[in-house]
Write a structure and sequence with these properties.
There is one protein chain. This protein is of the alpha/beta class and about 200 residues long. It has seven helices and eight strands. A six-stranded mixed beta sheet has the order 1-2-3-4-7-8. Strands 5-6 form a two-stranded antiparallel sheet. About 30% of the residues are buried.
């Protein structure tokens, strides 16, 4: 279950009205807050229930290190189970692009890729993929386009990659146009077929 599904379960257990989920979505995806305890329009008891399931931190990633240059802003994250991934925000004259990871390490071992030398560690969850984008948004660093070209092979983690895409493009969440998303792959055929069939507006 992703974060929103777990929150929905908590709300149903507590017989909360339907609009409560919309309030929480706004807090997560539109506000600059970083903790569930900072959501001002929820009762203390409801916040405690959510925190008991998800922890207080909204993001599933923690910044470990960052390096900023004129064009590239790299952030090294740690997942909650202590695996590391990297995201890179690239600043161009006309727009910004964010390269995000879908795996920690990679099993494919391409000789031209530094990640391949690390070996495979884990598939990222949909929330861990999404939260790389959300981190920059919450820190007032706008992103115009997203490229699935960080650590890992996106189509070797298809369920979570496509689930993250669904969350990113949901108009009630991040609302990113599919035309502003690109997937880089070594050529995983089932994933390419699903992409072209179900997500025709995403760049390959």
């Amino acid at each position: 279950m992703n974060r929103l599904e777990q929150i929905q379960a908590v709300l149903e257990e507590n017989n909360q009205p339907k609009f409560r989920l919309e309030q929480i979505k706004t807090a997560i995806f539109s506000d600059s807050i970083s903790r569930y305890s900072q959501i001002s329009n929820l009762s203390k008891s409801l916040k405690e229930q959510i925190i008991s399931v998800l922890g207080d931190e909204i993001l599933t990633l923690t910044k470990v290190h960052e390096a900023k240059g004129e064009q590239a802003h790299k952030v090294l994250f740690a997942t909650r189970d202590n695996h590391q991934i990297e995201s890179v925000r690239l600043q161009y004259k006309t727009h910004t692009a964010l390269c995000i990871s879908t795996q920690s390490g990679c099993a494919l071992g391409c000789l031209f890729c530094a990640t391949g030398a690390i070996g495979f560690k884990k598939n990222l969850s949909a929330d861990e993929i999404l939260d790389q984008v959300l981190y920059f948004q919450k820190n007032n660093l706008p992103v115009d386009s997203i490229i699935f070209m960080g650590m890992g092979e996106p189509l070797a983690n298809p369920d979570n990659t496509f689930a993250a895409i669904d969350l990113m493009t949901d108009k009630d969440l991040l609302g990113i146009s599919p035309r502003h998303l690109s997937i880089s792959t070594v050529g995983i055929i089932p994933g390419i077929e699903k992409l072209t069939r179900d997500y025709p507006n995403i760049n390959l």
